[in-house]
Amino acid sequence: MPQLTVPGLSARADVLTVTPDLAKEWLDRNVHNRPIRKNKVVNYARDMQAGNWALNGEAVKFAVDGVLLDGQHRLLAIVAAGIPVQMLVVTGLANNTQTTMDSGVKRTTGDAFSLEGQKNSQMLAAILKKAWMWEQGDHKFNASYTPTTAECAALLRQHPEIHRSLEVAIHVRGTFRAMPPSVTGVGHYILSKVAPDEAPWFFARVGDGAVSEPGHPILALRARVTNEALTGTSVHQHQRLAYLIRAWNAVRDGRPLARIQQGPKDPMPLPK
Q1: CA 233, CA 108: separation in Å to the nearest integer?
Q2: For residue range 1-30, what is the model confidence (pLDDT) as tens digits?
Q3: Quick one: which of 80, 107, 226, 257 could link to 250 by a disulfide (CB 3.0–4.6 Å)?
Q4: What's residue 31's pLDDT?
């Protein structure tokens, strides 16, 4: 394969266009590697097909004897995507260098947003991930794959109003800490699309509890979440989103709700 010599090193590097056939050929040299993480392959392939795969300096690496040391997930993704992708390829590495690869701290989606200057980047990323999964029909956030950083960024470009959902999540967090902000944020995103004029009042009351009617759904919501926080009850994130939706539906129906029930296996209610 064509390569560039790196001064002072025995390894060589080049940027190559890796076709699915070439990726398959290289994968035949994958004789000593960690187990395949299928969700990573699926995520990478989606980014490649969407044109969101960047040539960022991360290399596919080969040992001096031709054994593939690093890059199996990317090569499998090229095969799955069925399209050629440019890759930096490094060869001539010592076999024992494999143990030091991928040992750094992984840059998260929140880290990427922070580098772009986004405020509250980690919380923003958490809301975007849940919003993306909801839009995919995964209403319980339990799919085997999650959105990539590029997919989260694309969703934010498509729906800049998620910035407002982030602001609401921060505000509610300041007055009602028992409710996870990512749940509040994705709930605001979802419910604002149903009734944008009613969402501001609803989330303001979720935060401050300023309702006096006995059996008001918001009081039931706050009581359920507060009790779980005080008792240390472990609850899935989708359950708390279900609490929000159940309270929202009851408010819009004008009916009281003394208690909110939602088990981990119960169907997710859809907003009215």
Answers
A1: 28
A2: 444 444 445 778 889 999 999 999 999 988
A3: 257
A4: 87
Read off the pTM: 0.77
Query: What is the CA angle 133-138-139, rounded to 5?
Result: 100
Q: Does 209 or 105 have the greater pLDDT score?
A: 209
Q: Which is nearest to 248 in space by CA: 235, 257, 236?
A: 257
Contact 149, 124 (CB under 8 A): no
Residue 168: what residue type?
A: V
* Arithmetic mean of pLDDT, 210-214: 90
pLDDT of 7: 46
pLDDT of the residue at 6: 42
